Amino acid sequence: MGEWIEVTVAEKIRWNDGLYSLRFDAPLPAFKAGQFVRVGLDIDGERVARPYSLVNAPDETPHEIYFNLVPEGPLSPRLARLEPGDALFVHSSVTGTMTMERTPAHRHLWLFATGTALGPFLSMLKTDTPWERAERVVLCHSVRRATDLAYGETIRRLQARHGDRFDFVPVVTREAQPGTLSERIPAALDSGELERHVGLDLRAEDAHVMLCGNSGMIEAVQQVLEPRGLRRHRRREPGHITVEKYH
Question: Which of 41, 120, 196, 227 counts the most CB atoms within 10 A of its CB?
């Protein structure tokens, strides 16, 4: 269902040579923070589209996507070349199951993202829902290089608004960077470094974990957490871990 809508780029943000955000106005239906939309271009007579999570909260405009450039890919290099005023296509249906409304009750919310998978978590954190449901929120963002840490201003606003209830943990794995962890997320959990860093234990009794990003991180984190009694959350079998794979 739904239809393609031709929209105009309102703004492009170039975070570095491989990371971009595009903002555009589109008459999308009401959606839940954490959901995604299909974005496309007509290339050689064919519409090529990919799903991208919305970074903006449901009540924010313009809409925004955050993506990495895949040099050999058919779409992302062309999206990266767009400028304000250029046209692109957005599908009118917004979907996705990684939303706060689907999570069971919890005291502590742990959000783990790699790369551009940070986007849907920012959409969630700009809404009231996570803060109404959890006493404490930990956002952990893992990247290869320090220049891949995007949306710093948005994160600082969240820290200013929520104070000690919000912990942001940047992880930079391929270079030394002050103020960041260097172990990958699964290793930092396994060693206890991440929990020591924020002063909070990740326990099945009071935590819900949301994993978004590459499949290697998602699978490895689940292997670390399973012995602690945390299991995948499913509609018919409530659990502690919600997952969305980006690739």
Answer: 120
